[in-house]
Write a structure and sequence with these properties.
InterPro entries: DUF4254. The chain starts with a helix and ends with a helix. It contains 6 helices and no strands. It is mainly α and 201 residues long.
Length: 201
């Protein structure tokens, strides 16, 4: 797969749409061990977490349910990080034969974390569009207009991030930037690194 901004957004949009058909996970339509498969799964994790984050903010849910939801969020955050690292592995392979120029620059954000932002942005766009399309009595004209303005900004961000991804890949291809990835080194879920976990063993 030749990854570019348009292709990534298309896969994220497909995942968001598929999940919302039944508000439940949807079978991944792409073959396993492909970049498309990981992008689709990545957005599915983001979509599930989005809705759990909404749920946990309800003022009427019991405390034990809040704890259970928080643990689900922690697990999803770990899944999200793991998939981002898989995406970066794909990118490293894509450009493994490119020799960076002597003055090649580093990029503070890896391509996969940029794709992570693009994935979450598609959720923001989907749900802001839902607000713009609301017909119920609780949606005032003022609310709808504010949402239309926010949606315009989100769509502009989509265009900007697609451009940023394409330019980053062009720089990698031309050797103008070094392909270098820093892992997240998450500690809170690791029983050997989180003192609150290993002290209770």
């Amino acid at each position: 797969m030749n990854l570019d901004g348009n292709k990534a957004v298309s896969i994220f949009q497909q995942s968001v749409s598929d999940w919302h058909k039944k508000e439940a996970p949807h079978p991944n339509p792409y073959p396993e061990h492909t970049l498309e498969n990981i992008l689709y799964n990545k957005n599915h994790v983001d979509t599930i977490q989005w809705h759990i984050e909404d749920e946990i903010r309800r003022p009427d849910i019991p405390l034990e349910e809040v704890v259970a939801l928080k643990r689900k969020i922690d697990k999803l955050n770990q899944d999200r990080t793991d998939m981002v690292e898989k995406l970066d592995d794909f990118v490293i392979l894509l450009f493994k034969d490119i020799v960076p120029k002597q003055n090649a620059r580093l990029n503070s954000e890896s391509p996969a974390w940029l794709l992570d932002r693009m994935s979450i942005l598609e959720l923001k766009i989907f749900h802001m569009q839902e607000q713009v399309d609301r017909k119920d009595a609780g949606a005032s004209q003022e609310h709808l207009e504010k949402c239309r303005q926010k949606l315009t900004i989100l769509l502009e961000q989509r265009t900007d991030l697609k451009t940023c991804l394409d330019e980053l890949f062009t720089d990698y291809k031309n050797g103008d930037r070094k392909v270098k990835v820093y892992r997240q080194m998450k500690m809170y879920n690791d029983q050997n690194l989180n003192p609150s976990l290993y002290k209770t063993k």
